[in-house]
């Protein structure tokens, strides 16, 4: 399947350090939270892109290989991402396992594709408002993202739209140690 | 963590150039502040004519084909990219005097300085690399 990205960068045929240099330049065009797809044929780019993202503070989501082309997915992160969480109804990650509610994953599609909790439903934060009708108001909803920041905002949005059984899952997928389902 | 990478380029071959400029551009692309001190034969790497025809090590000439096949960028292209990414080039004044070179012999935008100029930059850099 193809993975949704906001921007595509073609770095095929280029050797080190060009994929990194091009990625850096392309990243400047993205706004926070958007996803860049980098296509490269340099086999070293897999380790390099991950190390580069780690070094400059962006989120390396993952890499898929199709016909000798490596597609890397990176999500742009602001330097100061220590946003305050204000939604009061929270639930710990361990407590949602085996509970009879819906796990709503509000990360981007690419992040979801590279690993999510079994049974979780994917609605990226930016699409939530338009897709509220897919959710059941009678059922408990555990909103999860990577660290608990986007899910905090999503939970507030749900409550503002008449949902009452809403919990923000803390910490978030970064602390999930259970099985990860991939759809790539 | 230090945000500076300090590089000394003291050799003038094609392999040396790739080592220097690949590390420098990769570091600059990772938001590091990078300075390269070009000294002795290293000055070749930013010499307007010299950088277009850097020698391969003796016996390694057959790698030319590999460079073409791997689509490795040419050195002048890497030099331009490094400067565009904000890598600072410092040419060694003493070597220039010995070799009879002036700032006009080099690519635009370089600084000329002595050992202390580089040491001042490098004092809190990590890593410091020599090629």
UniProtKB/TrEMBL annotation, chain A:
CDD domains (UniProt xref): RHOD, SirA_YedF_YeeD
PROSITE patterns named among the record's database cross-references: RHODANESE_3, UPF0033
Check the record and name the Pfam families matching this protein.
Rhodanese, TusA
**Matching SMART domains:** RHOD
Domain Rhodanese, residue spans: 97-182
> What's the name of the protein?
Rhodanese domain-containing protein
Q: Which organism is it from?
A: Lysinibacillus mangiferihumi
Q: What is the lineage of its organism?
A: Bacteria, Bacillati, Bacillota, Bacilli, Bacillales
UniProtKB/TrEMBL annotation, chain B:
The family database entries (InterPro entries) matched by this protein are listed as:
DsrE2-like, DsrEFH-like
Q: SUPFAM superfamilies, from UniProt?
A: DsrEFH-like
Output the superkingdom of the source species.
Bacteria
One Pfam family, short name: DrsE_2
Please state what the protein is called.
Sulfur reduction protein DsrE
**Organism annotation:** Lysinibacillus mangiferihumi
Question: What lineage does UniProt assign to this protein's organism?
Answer: Bacteria, Bacillati, Bacillota, Bacilli, Bacillales
